[in-house]
Amino acid sequence: MSTVCAVSTPLAEGGIAVIRISGEGALEAARRLFKPFGGKSVADMPGYSCAYGKVIDPATGEAVDDAMLTVFRAPHSYTGEDTAEISCHGGIYITKRILRLCLGAGCRQADRGEFTKRAFINGKLSLTQAESVMDMISARGELTLRSARLTREGRLFKRIDGVKQQLVALLAELAAWVDYPEEDLPAVEDTAIQATLSGACAELSRLIADYDCGMVLRSGIDTVIAGKPNVGKSTLMNMLLGYERSIVTSEAGTTRDVIEETARLGELELKLSDTAGIRETSNTIEQLGVSLAKKRLDECALIIAVFDTSAPLDEEDSELLEYIRALDKRLIIVLNKSDLGARLTRQDFPGERVVELSAKQGQGLEELTAAVSELFGADSYDPDTTIFANERQKRCAEEALERLQAALSAAMLGETLDAVTVMIDSAAEKLMELTGERAAEAVVDQVFERFCVGK
Ligand code: GDP
Prior knowledge:
The protein is of the alpha/beta class and 455 residues long. The chain has helices at 26-33, 92-104, 114-121, 127-138, 142-152, 155-179, 190-219, 233-241, 284-299, 315-327, 365-375, 391-412, 417-435, 441-449; strands spanning 4-7, 14-22, 34-36, 49-56, 63-72, 83-90, 108-109, 221-226, 259-265, 268-274, 302-308, 330-336, 354-356.
Protein backbone atom coordinates (compact mmCIF):
# COMPACT_ATOMS: atom_id res chain seq x y z
CA MET A 1 0.00 0.00 0.00
CA SER A 2 1.24 3.48 -0.79
CA THR A 3 2.53 5.87 1.86
CA VAL A 4 0.12 8.69 2.62
CA CYS A 5 0.43 12.00 4.41
CA ALA A 6 -1.94 14.70 5.63
CA VAL A 7 -2.19 17.56 8.06
CA SER A 8 -4.10 16.04 10.99
CA THR A 9 -4.80 19.27 12.83
CA PRO A 10 -7.15 21.99 11.53
CA LEU A 11 -5.53 24.22 8.96
CA ALA A 12 -5.51 27.36 11.06
CA GLU A 13 -3.00 29.31 13.12
CA GLY A 14 -2.28 27.60 16.41
CA GLY A 15 0.47 26.53 18.79
CA ILE A 16 1.36 23.37 16.92
CA ALA A 17 0.24 21.47 13.86
CA VAL A 18 0.69 17.75 13.24
CA ILE A 19 1.53 16.21 9.90
CA ARG A 20 0.99 12.49 9.83
CA ILE A 21 2.70 10.05 7.48
CA SER A 22 1.68 6.40 7.32
CA GLY A 23 2.73 3.42 5.22
CA GLU A 24 5.78 1.37 4.34
CA GLY A 25 7.78 4.40 3.27
CA ALA A 26 6.81 6.61 6.23
CA LEU A 27 10.06 6.37 8.15
CA GLU A 28 12.16 6.76 5.01
CA ALA A 29 10.22 9.91 4.09
CA ALA A 30 10.69 11.22 7.65
CA ARG A 31 14.40 10.43 7.48
CA ARG A 32 14.75 12.52 4.33
CA LEU A 33 13.19 15.65 5.71
CA PHE A 34 13.80 15.52 9.45
CA LYS A 35 17.21 15.79 11.12
CA PRO A 36 17.24 15.11 14.88
CA PHE A 37 19.55 17.37 16.89
CA GLY A 38 22.57 15.61 18.39
CA GLY A 39 23.30 13.53 15.31
CA LYS A 40 20.74 10.79 15.97
CA SER A 41 19.24 9.07 12.94
CA VAL A 42 15.52 8.60 12.30
CA ALA A 43 16.23 5.08 11.06
CA ASP A 44 17.49 4.11 14.54
CA MET A 45 14.52 5.52 16.41
CA PRO A 46 12.48 2.80 18.12
CA GLY A 47 8.66 2.82 18.03
CA TYR A 48 6.88 5.15 20.48
CA SER A 49 9.86 7.51 20.61
CA CYS A 50 10.27 11.20 19.89
CA ALA A 51 13.12 13.34 18.70
CA TYR A 52 13.59 17.09 18.64
CA GLY A 53 15.19 18.37 15.47
CA LYS A 54 14.68 20.38 12.35
CA VAL A 55 12.68 19.90 9.24
CA ILE A 56 14.80 20.51 6.19
CA ASP A 57 14.08 20.84 2.50
CA PRO A 58 16.10 17.90 1.11
CA ALA A 59 16.54 19.70 -2.23
CA THR A 60 18.33 22.73 -0.77
CA GLY A 61 19.30 21.61 2.74
CA GLU A 62 17.48 24.69 4.05
CA ALA A 63 15.96 24.45 7.55
CA VAL A 64 12.21 25.04 7.41
CA ASP A 65 11.18 24.69 11.07
CA ASP A 66 12.17 23.22 14.44
CA ALA A 67 9.85 20.35 15.23
CA MET A 68 9.24 17.10 17.10
CA LEU A 69 9.13 13.79 15.31
CA THR A 70 7.22 10.86 16.83
CA VAL A 71 7.86 7.42 15.41
CA PHE A 72 5.51 4.43 15.55
CA ARG A 73 6.55 1.10 14.14
CA ALA A 74 4.15 -1.40 12.57
CA PRO A 75 1.98 -2.93 13.81
CA HIS A 76 2.01 -0.74 16.93
CA SER A 77 0.45 2.39 15.52
CA TYR A 78 -3.05 3.77 14.92
CA THR A 79 -3.07 2.55 11.33
CA GLY A 80 -1.11 -0.62 12.03
CA GLU A 81 1.59 0.66 9.63
CA ASP A 82 4.88 2.48 10.16
CA THR A 83 3.87 6.01 11.06
CA ALA A 84 5.72 9.28 11.56
CA GLU A 85 4.16 12.39 13.02
CA ILE A 86 5.81 15.76 12.69
CA SER A 87 4.64 18.32 15.25
CA CYS A 88 5.69 21.66 13.84
CA HIS A 89 4.81 25.28 14.58
CA GLY A 90 1.13 25.80 13.86
CA GLY A 91 1.28 28.27 11.03
CA ILE A 92 -0.71 27.72 7.88
CA TYR A 93 2.22 28.39 5.55
CA ILE A 94 4.73 26.27 7.51
CA THR A 95 2.29 23.39 7.72
CA LYS A 96 1.55 23.42 4.01
CA ARG A 97 5.22 23.74 3.19
CA ILE A 98 6.11 20.66 5.28
CA LEU A 99 3.20 18.76 3.71
CA ARG A 100 4.65 19.60 0.28
CA LEU A 101 8.05 18.27 1.42
CA CYS A 102 6.33 15.01 2.41
CA LEU A 103 4.71 14.81 -1.02
CA GLY A 104 8.17 15.36 -2.54
CA ALA A 105 9.56 12.57 -0.35
CA GLY A 106 7.38 9.92 -1.99
CA CYS A 107 4.10 10.23 -0.10
CA ARG A 108 0.70 10.95 -1.55
CA GLN A 109 -2.02 13.07 0.03
CA ALA A 110 -4.32 10.91 2.17
CA ASP A 111 -8.01 10.70 1.30
CA ARG A 112 -10.71 11.58 3.82
CA GLY A 113 -10.54 9.20 6.75
CA GLU A 114 -7.78 7.20 5.10
CA PHE A 115 -5.73 6.72 8.28
CA THR A 116 -8.76 5.24 10.02
CA LYS A 117 -9.66 3.23 6.93
CA ARG A 118 -6.17 1.73 6.99
CA ALA A 119 -6.62 0.93 10.67
CA PHE A 120 -9.81 -0.92 9.69
CA ILE A 121 -8.17 -2.74 6.76
CA ASN A 122 -5.23 -3.73 8.96
CA GLY A 123 -7.57 -5.17 11.59
CA LYS A 124 -6.84 -2.53 14.25
CA LEU A 125 -10.49 -1.45 14.42
CA SER A 126 -13.87 -2.90 13.50
CA LEU A 127 -16.08 -0.79 11.27
CA THR A 128 -18.23 0.23 14.25
CA GLN A 129 -15.13 1.30 16.16
CA ALA A 130 -13.89 3.29 13.18
CA GLU A 131 -17.23 5.07 12.94
CA SER A 132 -17.08 5.94 16.62
CA VAL A 133 -13.79 7.76 16.06
CA MET A 134 -15.72 10.31 14.08
CA ASP A 135 -18.38 10.58 16.77
CA MET A 136 -15.70 11.31 19.35
CA ILE A 137 -14.35 14.09 17.18
CA SER A 138 -17.78 15.62 16.71
CA ALA A 139 -19.04 15.04 20.26
CA ARG A 140 -20.33 18.22 21.87
CA GLY A 141 -21.50 16.83 25.21
CA GLU A 142 -20.25 14.41 27.83
CA LEU A 143 -22.90 11.74 27.16
CA THR A 144 -22.18 11.63 23.45
CA LEU A 145 -18.48 11.43 24.08
CA ARG A 146 -18.94 8.66 26.62
CA SER A 147 -21.10 6.58 24.31
CA ALA A 148 -18.67 7.06 21.42
CA ARG A 149 -15.77 6.08 23.66
CA LEU A 150 -17.54 2.87 24.68
CA THR A 151 -18.13 1.99 21.04
CA ARG A 152 -14.51 2.82 20.35
CA GLU A 153 -13.59 0.33 23.07
CA GLY A 154 -15.49 -2.28 21.12
CA ARG A 155 -18.59 -2.72 23.28
CA LEU A 156 -21.05 -2.42 20.40
CA PHE A 157 -19.00 -4.85 18.35
CA LYS A 158 -19.06 -7.34 21.23
CA ARG A 159 -22.83 -7.14 21.59
CA ILE A 160 -23.44 -7.61 17.88
CA ASP A 161 -20.79 -10.29 17.76
CA GLY A 162 -22.48 -12.08 20.67
CA VAL A 163 -25.73 -12.30 18.70
CA LYS A 164 -23.88 -13.39 15.60
CA GLN A 165 -21.96 -16.13 17.44
CA GLN A 166 -25.23 -17.59 18.71
CA LEU A 167 -26.65 -17.61 15.19
CA VAL A 168 -23.51 -19.17 13.77
CA ALA A 169 -23.54 -21.90 16.43
CA LEU A 170 -27.19 -22.61 15.62
CA LEU A 171 -26.44 -22.64 11.89
CA ALA A 172 -23.61 -25.12 12.45
CA GLU A 173 -25.91 -27.47 14.34
CA LEU A 174 -28.62 -27.17 11.71
CA ALA A 175 -26.14 -27.74 8.88
CA ALA A 176 -24.67 -30.82 10.52
CA TRP A 177 -28.09 -32.27 11.07
CA VAL A 178 -29.37 -31.48 7.57
CA ASP A 179 -26.19 -32.48 5.74
CA TYR A 180 -25.28 -35.68 7.60
CA PRO A 181 -28.55 -37.46 8.33
CA GLU A 182 -26.73 -40.81 8.39
CA GLU A 183 -24.49 -39.68 11.27
CA ASP A 184 -27.34 -40.12 13.70
CA LEU A 185 -26.80 -36.69 15.24
CA PRO A 186 -29.38 -35.63 17.82
CA ALA A 187 -32.15 -33.58 16.18
CA VAL A 188 -32.00 -29.85 16.85
CA GLU A 189 -34.97 -29.27 19.12
CA ASP A 190 -37.56 -26.82 17.83
CA THR A 191 -37.67 -25.20 21.25
CA ALA A 192 -33.90 -24.67 21.18
CA ILE A 193 -34.11 -23.00 17.76
CA GLN A 194 -36.94 -20.79 18.88
CA ALA A 195 -35.20 -19.85 22.12
CA THR A 196 -32.03 -18.82 20.33
CA LEU A 197 -33.97 -16.84 17.75
CA SER A 198 -36.12 -15.01 20.28
CA GLY A 199 -33.07 -14.21 22.40
CA ALA A 200 -31.33 -12.72 19.36
CA CYS A 201 -34.45 -10.75 18.39
CA ALA A 202 -34.74 -9.33 21.91
CA GLU A 203 -31.12 -8.20 21.98
CA LEU A 204 -31.40 -6.50 18.58
CA SER A 205 -34.69 -4.82 19.55
CA ARG A 206 -33.02 -3.44 22.68
CA LEU A 207 -30.15 -2.02 20.67
CA ILE A 208 -32.54 -0.39 18.21
CA ALA A 209 -34.65 1.16 20.99
CA ASP A 210 -31.58 2.57 22.75
CA TYR A 211 -30.56 4.18 19.50
CA ASP A 212 -33.57 6.49 19.44
CA CYS A 213 -32.85 7.93 22.88
CA GLY A 214 -29.13 8.01 22.18
CA MET A 215 -29.73 9.85 18.94
CA VAL A 216 -31.57 12.61 20.79
CA LEU A 217 -28.59 13.04 23.08
CA ARG A 218 -26.23 12.97 20.17
CA SER A 219 -27.81 15.29 17.68
CA GLY A 220 -30.21 17.43 19.66
CA ILE A 221 -33.97 17.66 19.78
CA ASP A 222 -35.65 19.36 16.87
CA THR A 223 -37.89 21.79 18.71
CA VAL A 224 -40.55 24.28 17.66
CA ILE A 225 -41.75 27.07 19.92
CA ALA A 226 -45.32 27.75 18.87
CA GLY A 227 -47.95 30.17 20.05
CA LYS A 228 -50.02 33.10 18.92
CA PRO A 229 -48.31 36.49 18.56
CA ASN A 230 -47.17 38.29 21.69
CA VAL A 231 -47.33 35.39 24.13
CA GLY A 232 -43.54 35.62 24.57
CA LYS A 233 -42.08 33.05 22.15
CA SER A 234 -39.09 35.20 21.22
CA THR A 235 -38.48 36.13 24.84
CA LEU A 236 -38.57 32.45 25.79
CA MET A 237 -36.17 31.63 22.99
CA ASN A 238 -33.82 34.35 24.18
CA MET A 239 -34.00 32.96 27.71
CA LEU A 240 -33.09 29.49 26.42
CA LEU A 241 -30.25 30.82 24.33
CA GLY A 242 -29.05 33.17 27.01
CA TYR A 243 -28.87 36.23 24.80
CA GLU A 244 -31.01 38.54 22.69
CA ARG A 245 -31.60 36.89 19.36
CA SER A 246 -35.01 37.55 17.90
CA ILE A 247 -36.46 41.01 17.80
CA VAL A 248 -38.85 41.31 20.70
CA THR A 249 -41.54 43.92 20.32
CA SER A 250 -44.91 44.33 21.92
CA GLU A 251 -46.66 44.58 18.57
CA ALA A 252 -48.50 41.40 17.57
CA GLY A 253 -47.10 39.47 14.61
CA THR A 254 -43.51 40.74 14.50
CA THR A 255 -41.70 37.39 14.62
CA ARG A 256 -42.16 36.42 11.01
CA ASP A 257 -39.07 34.44 10.22
CA VAL A 258 -38.33 30.97 11.40
CA ILE A 259 -35.13 31.53 13.31
CA GLU A 260 -33.02 28.47 14.09
CA GLU A 261 -30.59 28.22 16.97
CA THR A 262 -29.19 25.62 19.32
CA ALA A 263 -29.66 25.81 23.07
CA ARG A 264 -28.13 23.50 25.64
CA LEU A 265 -30.41 22.41 28.47
CA GLY A 266 -28.36 20.37 30.89
CA GLU A 267 -27.22 17.32 28.93
CA LEU A 268 -29.77 17.94 26.20
CA GLU A 269 -29.48 20.13 23.20
CA LEU A 270 -32.53 21.78 21.68
CA LYS A 271 -32.45 22.73 18.04
CA LEU A 272 -34.86 25.61 18.32
CA SER A 273 -36.95 27.50 15.94
CA ASP A 274 -39.04 30.37 17.03
CA THR A 275 -41.89 30.40 14.59
CA ALA A 276 -44.68 32.66 13.66
CA GLY A 277 -48.10 31.96 15.11
CA ILE A 278 -50.35 29.64 13.15
CA ARG A 279 -53.16 32.17 12.77
CA GLU A 280 -54.81 32.86 9.45
CA THR A 281 -53.59 36.12 8.07
CA SER A 282 -54.00 38.30 5.03
CA ASN A 283 -50.51 39.75 5.27
CA THR A 284 -48.47 37.88 2.65
CA ILE A 285 -45.14 38.04 4.44
CA GLU A 286 -46.76 36.79 7.57
CA GLN A 287 -48.51 34.07 5.59
CA LEU A 288 -45.17 32.84 4.37
CA GLY A 289 -44.04 32.54 7.97
CA VAL A 290 -47.24 30.66 8.79
CA SER A 291 -46.74 27.99 6.13
CA LEU A 292 -43.09 27.60 7.14
CA ALA A 293 -44.20 27.24 10.73
CA LYS A 294 -46.67 24.49 9.83
CA LYS A 295 -43.98 22.61 7.93
CA ARG A 296 -41.60 22.84 10.89
CA LEU A 297 -44.33 21.62 13.22
CA ASP A 298 -44.82 18.58 11.01
CA GLU A 299 -41.14 17.71 11.07
CA CYS A 300 -40.09 18.50 14.63
CA ALA A 301 -39.66 16.11 17.57
CA LEU A 302 -40.81 18.46 20.34
CA ILE A 303 -43.35 21.28 20.44
CA ILE A 304 -43.22 23.90 23.15
CA ALA A 305 -46.63 25.59 22.95
CA VAL A 306 -46.60 28.98 24.65
CA PHE A 307 -49.64 30.69 26.19
CA ASP A 308 -49.93 33.98 28.03
CA THR A 309 -51.04 32.98 31.50
CA SER A 310 -52.11 36.53 32.34
CA ALA A 311 -55.02 36.30 29.91
CA PRO A 312 -57.71 33.66 29.47
CA LEU A 313 -57.51 31.29 26.50
CA ASP A 314 -59.05 32.86 23.42
CA GLU A 315 -60.21 31.34 20.17
CA GLU A 316 -56.78 31.69 18.58
CA ASP A 317 -55.13 29.82 21.49
CA SER A 318 -57.72 27.07 21.27
CA GLU A 319 -57.28 26.66 17.52
CA LEU A 320 -53.54 26.39 17.95
CA LEU A 321 -53.91 23.86 20.72
CA GLU A 322 -56.28 21.78 18.65
CA TYR A 323 -53.93 21.90 15.66
CA ILE A 324 -50.93 20.88 17.75
CA ARG A 325 -52.70 18.11 19.64
CA ALA A 326 -53.71 16.55 16.33
CA LEU A 327 -50.03 16.27 15.36
CA ASP A 328 -49.50 13.82 18.20
CA LYS A 329 -45.97 14.97 18.99
CA ARG A 330 -44.12 15.26 22.26
CA LEU A 331 -45.61 18.43 23.73
CA ILE A 332 -44.86 20.83 26.57
CA ILE A 333 -47.36 23.56 27.42
CA VAL A 334 -45.62 26.70 28.68
CA LEU A 335 -47.72 29.16 30.65
CA ASN A 336 -45.64 32.29 30.23
CA LYS A 337 -45.75 35.67 31.99
CA SER A 338 -46.34 34.02 35.38
CA ASP A 339 -45.01 37.26 36.91
CA LEU A 340 -48.22 38.98 35.81
CA GLY A 341 -50.44 36.61 37.80
CA ALA A 342 -52.12 33.48 36.54
CA ARG A 343 -55.46 33.41 34.74
CA LEU A 344 -54.59 30.04 33.20
CA THR A 345 -53.74 26.99 35.28
CA ARG A 346 -52.75 23.37 34.78
CA GLN A 347 -56.43 22.47 35.00
CA ASP A 348 -57.00 24.24 31.69
CA PHE A 349 -54.76 21.63 30.03
CA PRO A 350 -55.82 18.26 31.43
CA GLY A 351 -53.47 15.40 30.64
CA GLU A 352 -50.73 17.70 29.30
CA ARG A 353 -47.26 18.40 30.64
CA VAL A 354 -47.44 22.03 31.83
CA VAL A 355 -44.61 24.36 32.90
CA GLU A 356 -45.29 27.79 34.37
CA LEU A 357 -42.59 30.37 33.85
CA SER A 358 -41.65 33.95 33.25
CA ALA A 359 -39.43 34.22 30.21
CA LYS A 360 -38.91 37.92 30.76
CA GLN A 361 -37.64 37.42 34.30
CA GLY A 362 -35.72 34.28 33.41
CA GLN A 363 -37.68 32.12 35.87
CA GLY A 364 -38.65 28.50 35.33
CA LEU A 365 -35.74 27.24 33.26
CA GLU A 366 -35.07 24.32 35.64
CA GLU A 367 -38.69 23.12 35.44
CA LEU A 368 -38.61 23.31 31.67
CA THR A 369 -35.30 21.42 31.52
CA ALA A 370 -36.70 18.73 33.81
CA ALA A 371 -39.84 18.39 31.68
CA VAL A 372 -37.86 17.96 28.45
CA SER A 373 -35.49 15.52 30.07
CA GLU A 374 -38.34 13.40 31.40
CA LEU A 375 -40.21 13.51 28.11
CA PHE A 376 -37.24 12.06 26.24
CA GLY A 377 -36.28 9.53 28.88
CA ALA A 378 -32.90 11.20 29.27
CA ASP A 379 -33.02 10.70 33.04
CA SER A 380 -33.32 6.96 32.83
CA TYR A 381 -30.90 6.72 29.93
CA ASP A 382 -27.89 4.71 30.94
CA PRO A 383 -24.82 6.54 29.67
CA ASP A 384 -22.97 3.25 29.56
CA THR A 385 -25.38 1.87 26.97
CA THR A 386 -23.71 1.19 23.69
CA ILE A 387 -25.64 2.55 20.78
CA PHE A 388 -25.32 2.58 17.05
CA ALA A 389 -23.30 5.46 15.73
CA ASN A 390 -25.47 6.15 12.72
CA GLU A 391 -28.36 5.18 10.50
CA ARG A 392 -26.26 2.73 8.53
CA GLN A 393 -25.63 0.60 11.59
CA LYS A 394 -29.23 0.88 12.73
CA ARG A 395 -30.57 -0.15 9.31
CA CYS A 396 -28.36 -3.24 9.27
CA ALA A 397 -29.67 -4.20 12.71
CA GLU A 398 -33.27 -3.60 11.66
CA GLU A 399 -32.88 -5.75 8.56
CA ALA A 400 -31.20 -8.49 10.58
CA LEU A 401 -34.07 -8.31 13.06
CA GLU A 402 -36.69 -8.60 10.30
CA ARG A 403 -34.96 -11.66 8.90
CA LEU A 404 -34.71 -13.26 12.33
CA GLN A 405 -38.38 -12.58 13.03
CA ALA A 406 -39.24 -14.23 9.72
CA ALA A 407 -37.04 -17.20 10.66
CA LEU A 408 -38.72 -17.43 14.03
CA SER A 409 -42.25 -17.50 12.60
CA ALA A 410 -41.15 -19.98 9.92
CA ALA A 411 -39.73 -22.22 12.66
CA MET A 412 -42.93 -21.91 14.69
CA LEU A 413 -45.06 -22.75 11.65
CA GLY A 414 -43.01 -25.90 11.17
CA GLU A 415 -41.44 -24.95 7.83
CA THR A 416 -38.45 -26.97 6.60
CA LEU A 417 -35.17 -26.47 8.43
CA ASP A 418 -33.61 -25.58 5.08
CA ALA A 419 -35.85 -22.57 4.73
CA VAL A 420 -35.23 -21.47 8.34
CA THR A 421 -31.47 -21.90 7.84
CA VAL A 422 -31.47 -19.62 4.81
CA MET A 423 -33.20 -16.85 6.79
CA ILE A 424 -30.88 -17.13 9.77
CA ASP A 425 -27.93 -17.13 7.42
CA SER A 426 -29.06 -13.91 5.77
CA ALA A 427 -29.57 -12.28 9.20
CA ALA A 428 -26.03 -13.22 10.22
CA GLU A 429 -24.78 -11.71 6.95
CA LYS A 430 -26.46 -8.40 7.82
CA LEU A 431 -24.80 -8.36 11.24
CA MET A 432 -21.45 -8.94 9.60
CA GLU A 433 -22.17 -6.03 7.28
CA LEU A 434 -22.84 -3.95 10.39
CA THR A 435 -19.47 -4.74 11.97
CA GLY A 436 -17.66 -4.59 8.65
CA GLU A 437 -16.52 -8.22 8.74
CA ARG A 438 -18.30 -8.69 5.47
CA ALA A 439 -19.10 -5.20 4.25
CA ALA A 440 -18.98 -4.50 0.54
CA GLU A 441 -16.24 -2.11 -0.52
CA ALA A 442 -18.84 0.50 -1.44
CA VAL A 443 -20.19 0.45 2.11
CA VAL A 444 -16.72 0.85 3.58
CA ASP A 445 -15.93 3.70 1.20
CA GLN A 446 -19.12 5.47 2.17
CA VAL A 447 -18.26 5.22 5.85
CA PHE A 448 -14.87 6.83 5.42
CA GLU A 449 -16.08 9.53 3.06
CA ARG A 450 -17.76 11.12 6.08
CA PHE A 451 -14.40 11.62 7.78
CA CYS A 452 -12.17 14.64 7.51
CA VAL A 453 -8.78 14.54 5.83
CA GLY A 454 -6.02 13.73 8.29
CA LYS A 455 -8.09 11.41 10.48
P1 GDP B 1 -43.83 36.64 20.55
O1 GDP B 1 -44.61 37.47 19.59
O2 GDP B 1 -44.64 35.45 21.00
O3 GDP B 1 -42.48 36.24 20.08
O4 GDP B 1 -43.68 37.52 21.88
P2 GDP B 1 -42.44 38.38 22.36
O5 GDP B 1 -41.38 37.49 22.91
O6 GDP B 1 -42.07 39.32 21.30
O7 GDP B 1 -43.07 39.13 23.62
C1 GDP B 1 -44.18 39.99 23.51
C2 GDP B 1 -44.23 40.93 24.69
O8 GDP B 1 -44.45 40.21 25.90
C3 GDP B 1 -42.94 41.70 24.89
O9 GDP B 1 -43.26 43.02 25.29
C4 GDP B 1 -42.26 40.97 26.02
O10 GDP B 1 -41.39 41.78 26.77
C5 GDP B 1 -43.43 40.49 26.84
N1 GDP B 1 -43.11 39.28 27.62
C6 GDP B 1 -42.59 38.13 27.17
N2 GDP B 1 -42.44 37.25 28.19
C7 GDP B 1 -42.88 37.87 29.31
C8 GDP B 1 -42.97 37.49 30.69
O11 GDP B 1 -42.60 36.38 31.11
N3 GDP B 1 -43.51 38.39 31.54
C9 GDP B 1 -43.92 39.63 31.13
N4 GDP B 1 -44.42 40.45 32.05
N5 GDP B 1 -43.83 40.02 29.86
C10 GDP B 1 -43.33 39.17 28.94
